[in-house]
Amino acid sequence: MSVDIDQVTDNTKPAPPARTTGRVPSGAGKKVKWALIDILVVAYALIPVLWILSLSFKTADGLNDKSFFPKEWTWKNYQDIFKTNEFVSALVNSIGIALISTIIAVVLGTMAAYAVARLDFPGKKALVGVSLLIAMFPQVSLVSPLFNIERNIGLFDTWPGLILPYITFALPLAIYTLSAFFREIPWELEKAAKMDGATPAQAFRKVIAPLAAPGVFTTAILVFIFCWNDFLFAISLTSTTSSRTVPAALSFFTGASQFEAPNGTISAAAVIITIPIILFVLFFQRRIVAGLTSGAVKG
Amino acid sequence: MAEIVLDKITKRYPDGALAVSEVDLQIADGEFIILVGPSGCGKSTTLNMIAGLEDISEGELRIDGQRVNEKAPKDRDIAMVFQSYALYPHMSVRENMAFPLRLAKVDDATVQAKVNEAAEILDLVAHLDRKPGNLSGGQRQRVAMGRAIVRSPKAFLMDEPLSNLDAKLRVQMRTSVSKLQKQLGTTTVYVTHDQTEAMTLGDRVVVLRGGLVQQVGSPQFLYEQPANLFVAGFIGSPAMNFLPGTLENGALNTPLGTVTLSDRIRRLAEAANAPRELIAGIRPEHFEDAKLVEGKPGGSFTATVDVLESMGSDKYAYFTVEGETATTAELDELAADAGSTDVPASGSSIVTRLAASSGAVAGQPLDLWYDSDKIQLFDPASGKNLTYTE
């Protein structure tokens, strides 16, 4: 969960000052009100993250000292998790599985969403309906059948064994988000491209796809976060380090003795797995520029 | 450059709606032809069929003698300017204009040369590296034109290219479009709903109504010899005045009084087997202040000036003439298109264009004269112009 929170704070943190100073000249009272609300929201989102960060720097003895800041700082938790093969391979699995799922889901989703937004084909409503149905389907009810199926066909505890269900559940999300973006692109641009001598494929690649890029990146972020955060499938469909992802691996952490809770290492691992998401969001955030299509058509 | 032939082109939508019905048109090489009509008349559909953006249901489209019905837009070698300009917002002006050439795999040096040349013609050199989002409406419009002219296509198709510009710029761009077309000599099909654009730009004008061609001809010919009520009402601004009338022994009786028709009109009406009840059409400029007319044959009447608009060079005087109004399906449609249906009117309202020296005063009665040789007579049932001559 820390992952979502981080993304939210990352977006809201720089925005409020700009908004409060830039546009509202009507008195300091309004400014103070907004500043208070902003601080409240940021604090609500950030305190648990800071708490985890603090825990990850505490020594084993200091874990339960009821202090928000570590009395004694240590890197030991971080050293510990990277000492074991368990966490490193989980990290590799997480990154690999989430990236592959995201790429496949976004590519398929882009094509499907384009068709949904632009074409009139028989069964379009059914397709949209079914994809919505999949999105709403409770994933828990699928875990047991998937477990049995995957064991029988040899997908259990493999990368594809996780990638497949991730794509299944990410696709409706991708199709919905992307078709909204495609609808925003003026259709005349495509006609213009055709008149300029483009084949339908060229028109899509050179005109529509670049304009849909913000939508594609937004979708990619959402899908990546969905895959990255998943615990249910990760814990059910894996059994060894060969495919176990970080959320699942965390639950297998052990303390120094079996009577000791591994809170320090879990916190360190949680901090570590938040980093790729922050990087991912920061990297793509710059590309999500609103109003990219302005100037295409008079409007 | 090419000759474009529309041979009984028909567009029928899957739901059975007929958008364009058997349009026959021969567009000569280098000709500037205008498709004009009220919204929903099928002019844009016709243009899209020529472009290849819409399928042709029936009939044949030939460009340079070759059937192109089945060809994709990119294989027809025609360029189009869209009403919304449809510029690629992620590309600079230069890239926008180079796009068709890049797709045609033209080498880099030629692309640069052609883009620069087009930018020169359209006065866009200073803006080549800007994005469309940072351009004004007129500049965007010119970029759209530039994108069309760079690859020297066989024909230009323009779909209301000026309708998004403000009035002043529109007039300015109208002359540039006309000049550009003359300069390049490329066959051009231009769609507009604005009759002024149609009159000023085209070599020939095609008036469409409900998917049917009403009349094809030079702007002046359409103005002077409209084939029917619809064309008569559509072409000309302010529009022609229509009055119900009865024809008896060579005299026309309208709410303006009785007037003896000229021999020419009488002969034409007889040849056309004019019915007794008909609709008379008189253009605003065929009225005049009676004081300024000496001895010319025509009718005269007295009416109170409702509104007087002085344009400097002339005066427009508006009157209301009591009595029956001329109503036909065509006139209703024209009124609906002009948005004047909800103006309550008792009697016919008449627009006249008078000389600047006229002493007309709003709210005062004025003696008016109208030219009996310029009256056009229409059959109320078919809308046909009974005084039409080739």
From TrEMBL, chain A:
Its main location: membrane. Signal peptide: none annotated. Keywords: Cell membrane, Membrane, Transmembrane, Transmembrane helix, Transport. PROSITE patterns: ABC_TM1. GO terms for biological process: transmembrane transport. Residues 91-284 form the ABC transmembrane type-1 domain. One of its GO terms (cellular component) is plasma membrane. Gene3D superfamilies: MetI-like. Pfam families: BPD_transp_1 (PF00528). Belongs to the binding-protein-dependent transport system permease family. This is Carbohydrate ABC transporter membrane protein 2 (CUT1 family). It comes from Labedaea rhizosphaerae.
Automatic annotation (TrEMBL), chain B:
The keyword Translocase applies. GO terms for molecular function: ABC-type transporter activity; ATP binding; ATP hydrolysis activity. Transmembrane segments: none annotated. The keyword Hydrolase does not apply. One of its GO terms (cellular component) is ATP-binding cassette (ABC) transporter complex, substrate-binding subunit-containing. It comes from Labedaea rhizosphaerae. InterPro entries: AAA+_ATPase (IPR003593), ABC_transporter-like_ATP-bd (IPR003439), ABC_transporter-like_CS (IPR017871), ABC_transpr_MalK-like (IPR015855), ABC_transpr_MalK/UgpC-like (IPR047641), Mo/tungstate-bd_C_term_dom (IPR008995), NA-bd_OB-fold (IPR012340), OB_MalK-like (IPR040582). PROSITE patterns: ABC_TRANSPORTER_1, ABC_TRANSPORTER_2. This is Carbohydrate ABC transporter ATP-binding protein (CUT1 family). NCBIfam families: PRK11650.1. SMART domains: AAA. Keywords: ATP-binding, Cell membrane, Membrane, Nucleotide-binding, Translocase, Transport. One of its GO terms (biological process) is carbohydrate transport. Residues 4-235 form the ABC transporter domain. CDD domains: ABC_MalK_N.
